[in-house]
Design goal:
92 residues, mainly alpha, YtzH, YtzH-like protein
Amino acid sequence: MPLSHHDQLILLKDILTNHQTDCCGSIAECEQVERLVKSLLVNPSINDQIKPTLEQVYFYSQNGINTPNLDEHILSNQTNLSQWVEDMESYS
């Protein structure tokens, strides 16, 4: 059974919150973030105002997948992670 867009947003927020609080993550998590964001961006039920945030998160995941030092990438995006989670909470 596929996840609803609401469930996808909750999962996305959970992963990003874990990255923010733990200052570390995995390539698999970045790949999951990428898949979630792709799915959300094509979903007509998603508020258009959250799409710019989702696009930023997509680029964050892409950079995370391709970076030689994922923990450093996560650490350098702490402010962004906090803002993205806050944005998602206000539109979910």
